[in-house]
Amino acid sequence: MNKFFTYIYCLSILLTGCKSNEKKESIVKQNHQPKNILFIAVDDLRPELNFYGANHIKSPNLDKLASESLVFNRSYCNIPVCGASRASLLTGLRPTRYRFIDYATTADKDAPNVISLPKLLKQNGYITRSNGKIYHENNDDSLAWNNIWFPEGNIRNYQLEDNIKNNGNANLAVAGAAAFEMAEVSDTAYFDGKIAQKGIADLKMLKNRSKPFFLALGFMKPHLPFNAPKKYWDLYDRSSIELPASYIQPQSTPKEAFHKFGELRNYGNIPLKGDIPDDLAKELIHGYYACVSYVDAQIGLVLDELKRLELEDDTIVILWGDHGWNLGDHKLWCKHVTFETALRTPLIIKVPGITKGETTDAITEYIDIYPSLTELVAIETPNTIEGKSFVPILNGEFPEKDWAVSKFKDAVTLIKGDLFYTEWTKDDGVAYARMLFDHKIDPLELDNLAEKPAYEKQVKLLSLELREKWGKDFLKK
User: Fold this and answer.
1) In the prediction, which pLDDT does 56 show?
2) Are 13 and 102 found together in one domain?
3) Roughly what angle, to the nearest 10 degrees, separates helices 369-376 and 82-91?
4) Is pLDDT above 80 for 248?
């Protein structure tokens, strides 16, 4: 048995005592051969799913996967923007004031000397394949992969003639094209259907290889534009869709916490300023739901193939969304803020022989994913990694680490227990605005406590703790 894995196993026995017979069998079984990893990323996916307590989005395949997995109720991205979040997750490094900043972030530029998760796996004998959107830039960290594939065509992937014409050759949204479309097309007309079929083909190819595989599938929806085949729109009755209970911007919340959601306003059917009209807001929510159901169906096809090929028992499946998303929460759309709606993310992991539909309320950060997967496949984690493995949670333990730190631009948030504390800081780390929410009494984050005299002492302590935990390189250029 690998020395590193033996150490972890022995430590778990010491910590858990004689109740570990079942865990011992699972862990020993896990080490008979290196496990494959099916690594599923879903762009802009909120944890608004049945296994998180919602009951209005139809996602039967994700529900089934969750029933066989460990579901993280309190998982948080480290930065709510796609390029930076993905680079941070795959390198295991925290964002800082000057590293992992925006959607255009690349690991090659911001962490050139760090061994990424796929590169480490490749160095240790894994076949690594990237399909769809894994990094934001397709060729980022290119040496980590045996193969990189992305569907051909315009990134906006419109199918309706007017949208195709209005969008032209632009890969970013332009004034004429709509923020959503409902087309009478097959599932494979859109990118996610193609990504699923490529994943299925890869599984068939990898089935008989002598090496373990790391197959990464990056699905595009529910990212804007909300384009999905009509049959998925037909699953929902728009008259039953309601605006969120937090459809308000309280005076007590710092103005810095809000933005004009320019990502959405780029589309031709969205007002250039002001609130989104209620009917249009509900249509956007409808489109988001349809896209979630569409991508759920594609993921289901891949998981069905994994089972048909009898690879289930040898494959870890992990599914994550790169950040949260606002659907009118705080009258905001898109991400790019540090409210919980942009930071909290879906994260589920299925480990054969171990997970059986459990849930955990342990606070988990996305930088924890890298060291967790390396531990599960018994590969030593590089000392550059800043996250902490959540494998103890799989063994029925509660981790010592009970906090997370996320940031976006000047805003840095400490998540600890029920508290969400955010500071907006200057280059020298001095705060110029702050907000504090207690989710025990204010889960919708509508009452900022940071400037209330009764919380002055607590704010000072949280401010110190934030600086202790935001990373040793946070202010380093």
Assistant:
1) 93
2) no
3) 40
4) yes
181/244 same-domain check: yes
Distance CA 84, CA 135 (A): 9
| Higher local confidence (pLDDT), 56 or 174 | 56
Range of the domain at 311: 35-408
- Domain check: are 199 and 85 in the same one? yes
Task: For residue 164, give the CATH number of its domain.
Answer: 3.40.720.10
What DSSP designation does 334 have?
A: E
Q: Are residues 127 and 27 in the same domain?
A: no
Whether 147 and 166 map to the same domain: the answer is yes
Among the listed residues 331, 362, 340, 365, the one whose alpha carbon sits nearest the alpha carbon of residue 435: 340
454 domain residue, yes or no:
no
Q: Per-residue b/e over 278-317, b at no fewer than 16 CB within 10 Å?
A: eeebbbbbbbbbbbbbbbbbbbbbbbebbeeeebbeebbb
Tokens 């002598």 — which residue?
210
Q: Which residues contact 377 (CB under 8 A, 6 or more apart)?
A: 34, 35, 37, 121, 212, 316
Q: What pLDDT score does 171 carry?
A: 67
The domain total for the chain is: 2
Instruction: Map tokens 């406590």 to a residue.
Output: 449
For position 176, what pLDDT does the model report? 73
Cβ–Cβ < 8 Å for 79, 98:
no
Higher pLDDT: 395 or 335? It is 335
Indicate the average pLDDT of the chain. Answer: 91
Supply the residues annotated as catalytic: 82, 136
Indicate the pTM of the whole model. Answer: 0.91
Has residue 455 been placed in a domain? Answer: no
Element (H, E) at 393: helix 391-394
Q: Are residues 18 and 83 in the same domain?
A: no
